[in-house]
Amino acid sequence: MSLTTLPFPVDKAAAPAVEVQPRTHRKISTELVGKIQTVLEQTVKSHPEFENILIATADGFDIAAMIKDNDKESIRRLAAISSSMLSLSIEILAEMSAGEQKILTLEGEQGNIFITQVSADTFALSLTVITRDNESLGKFFWLIRQLKQEIETLCAGAVQAESASEGSND
């Protein structure tokens, strides 16, 4: 059995050790979930080329979704799979010293799937967008980054509001 070498050099000495940093996990409030769901609904309405959108936790549980058939079991599977793929892509990039993960893109005959990390301080979330349209990838990347930023802003605001209410209760 022969092994094929990678098309780029791998310097084991230069590759940083991959260390998973635990995050402080907070429960995502029903209010925040509702706000995220509203953003997803508005996004699909204004950008019909986004056929399906899903927000999931890093450990694979769905938070909010705009899925065409709205099949709960399909949403659960998609949440688990996309979160796993996101985690794997982050680890591969770290192992290869290729920098921070931006958007994982899967191109299929019938459309594209984009998966990215939503960096909220205490919420580790993944954003999955499924498209069926043949728009340019650049347009999709831009729209996904805008959506990601809007969700990050919502999460940051929720954490600040929660911290402020905890501080006033002391």
Topology:
Elements: H1 30-46, E1 50-57, E2 62-66, H2 72-95, E3 104-107, E4 112-119, E5 124-131, H3 137-169
Antiparallel strand pairs: 1-2, 1-5, 3-4, 4-5
Helix pairs in contact: 1-3
What does this protein structure show overall?
With 170 residues, this protein is of the alpha+beta class. The protein has one domain: Beta-Lactamase. The protein contains 3 helices and 5 strands. A 5-stranded antiparallel sheet has the order 2-1-5-4-3, sandwiched between helices. It starts with 29 loop residues before the first helix and ends with a helix. Residues 20-24 have low confidence and may be disordered.
Briefly characterize the structure:
The chain has 170 residues and is α+β, with helices and mostly antiparallel strands.
Annotation keywords:
44% helix, alpha+beta, five-stranded antiparallel β-sheet, globular, Beta-Lactamase
Q: What portion of residues is helical?
A: 40-55%
CATH superfamily: Dynein light chain 2a, cytoplasmic
- Listing every helix as H and every strand as E from the N terminus to the C terminus, the arrangement reads HEEHEEEH
- Rg result: 18 Å
Number of continuous helical runs: 3
**Average pLDDT for all residues:** 84
Number of domains: 1
Number of strands: 5
Poorly predicted runs of 5 or more residues: 20-24
- Name the shape in a single word: globular
**Strand arrangement across the biggest beta sheet:** 2-1-5-4-3
In CATH terms, what is the fold-level topology?
Beta-Lactamase
**CATH architecture annotation name:** 2-Layer Sandwich
Please give the alpha-carbon distance between the first and last residues. Answer: 66 Å
CATH class: Alpha Beta
Structural class of the secondary structure composition? alpha+beta
* Major β-sheet profile: 5 strands, antiparallel
In terms of DSSP E residues, the strand content is 15-25%
